[in-house]
Every structure is written in structure tokens, then in C-alpha cells.
Amino acid sequence: MSQAYIDSTGASRGSLTSYVTGFVLSLILTAIPFALVMSGTWSSSAILVGIFSAGIVQILVHLYFFLHLDRSSDASWNVLALIFTVLIMVLFVGGSIWIMFNLYHRMM
């Protein structure tokens, strides 16, 4: 299990070291926002920027180390499916916010 390989379905499998690296990075990126909030030395806006930055980096770490989405040709269909999923989620969330905003103004 130490070497990465591609099975018959085209999905790549990671090695144990890649999973451990992803896990350690995820722990560090989870601890950073806790440390920012608990220290209390930074301003509120700087803490929010730090939390959102750590969250975005953690999403990228999960996509690369656990879901194996990278720029290889083997993962192109998975990346396309991810982009489609994000588009659908943006449409659902954006449409829901738009509907709620419109209803709020019509009720007031």
C-alpha cells in the first residue's frame, strides 16, 4: 500500500504517506483557527480572515490528498463532476437567498 496505483475504474489510490500528510495538514489547519480565537491578540476582522483562509486551504488539502483531484488526465472526469456539483450548489444557495430576499421585501 506504499505506492500509488490506478485501478481498473480509473480512480487513483493514494499511498499511506499521502494520507498521513493530508491528515496532519488537516489537523494543523483545524488548530490554526482555534489558536487565533483563543489568543485574542488579533482584531476581529484579522481573525475572520485567518479562519476563512484556513478553511479554504483545508478544502484544497482534502480535495488533493483524500479525493485525489489533481491536474492529471485520470482525474479529469472527477474534476468535471466536482465543478458541476459546485455550480449546482451555487445555484441552489444563490437562488434560495434570492427568493428569501425577495419575499422579505414583499412582506415588509
Automatic annotation (TrEMBL):
Entry keyword set: Cell membrane, Electron transport, Membrane, Oxidoreductase, Transmembrane, Transmembrane helix, Transport
Main location: membrane
Keyword Transmembrane (UniProt): yes
Membrane topology of the entry: Multi-pass membrane protein
Ranges annotated as spanning the membrane: 20-39, 46-67, 79-104
Pfam families attached to this UniProt entry: COX4_pro
GO molecular function: cytochrome bo3 ubiquinol oxidase activity; proton transmembrane transporter activity
Subcellular location: Cell membrane
GO CC terms in record: cytochrome o ubiquinol oxidase complex; plasma membrane
UniProt entry tagged with the keyword Transport: yes
GO biological process: aerobic electron transport chain; electron transport coupled proton transport
Coiled-coil segments on the chain, per record: none
Record text on subunit structure and interactions: Heterooctamer of two A chains, two B chains, two C chains and two D chains.
Family label: Belongs to the cytochrome c oxidase bacterial subunit 4 family.
Function: Cytochrome bo(3) ubiquinol terminal oxidase is the component of the aerobic respiratory chain of E.coli that predominates when cells are grown at high aeration. Has proton pump activity across the membrane in addition to electron transfer, pumping 2 protons/electron.
The protein, known as: Cytochrome bo(3) ubiquinol oxidase subunit 4
Native organism: Desulfomonile tiedjei (strain ATCC 49306 / DSM 6799 / DCB-1)
